[in-house]
UniProtKB/TrEMBL annotation:
InterPro entries: DUF481 (IPR007433)
Keywords of the record: Signal
Organism of this sequence: Pseudenterobacter timonensis
Lineage: Bacteria, Pseudomonadati, Pseudomonadota, Gammaproteobacteria, Enterobacterales
Name of the protein in its database record: YdiY family protein
Signal sequence coordinates: 1-25
Stretch list, region Disordered: 230-252
Amino acid sequence: MKLLKTLPAAVMLAGGVFASLNAVADDSVFTVMDDPSTAKKPFEGNLNAGYLAQSGNTKSSSLTADTTLTWYGTKTAWSLWGNASNTSSNDERSSEKYAVGGRSRYNTTDYDYLFGQASWLTDRYNGYRQRDVVTAGYGRQFLNGPVHSLRVEFGPGVRYDEYTDGDNETQPLGYASGTYAWQLTDNAKFSQGVSVFGAEDTTLNSETALNVAINEHFGLKVAYNVTWNSSPPDSAPEHTDRRTTVSLGYKM
């Protein structure tokens, strides 16, 4: 997509935020730190959204939004997340993706935990009518201090793919993920997450993000997502998809 290269000076930014989208097809990386032993309150949530609209000689729009909700117990954490993005040009949709998921975590020791998670994705412009993934396994919290946080987890899973050409496939997979967060200042936080879903069609996902707080509830999020598929659908043959977003966030 070359949307950003054709933007004129007259651009309307809704909500005061800017979003740029390239091809999107991913199993979202869960980058929220959900260690119940360090939770400061029983619930944390955030919502990020960005919108770009252009009119005149060219009419186009891009929208992106994501949210994560996490409830904490003494040893458990439960999370729900979702994201959506779509882009259109001259009243023709060029990309559209929606994903939702759930996750649970149970701390067995101060550093060890068990987890389970499931997700659903639809991304028809990149060849997937739907993709369902379920994984479970073991994790290790190497760092959980106020400045640095690092966890690594892995386990087995299963994935069901339904393609836009009508074919479908169910296959077992091996899952591994690592997530790191660094509280740079009182108002700025950097995070990096990488996940691998190993199967006949291996998928690797990466999210690099910077969150900057404006005040107690609002902030800006800059994120760069990369997804690599070893065997993408014939209708969307590119192996690598990239997405860059700058969005306004609300912390609950």
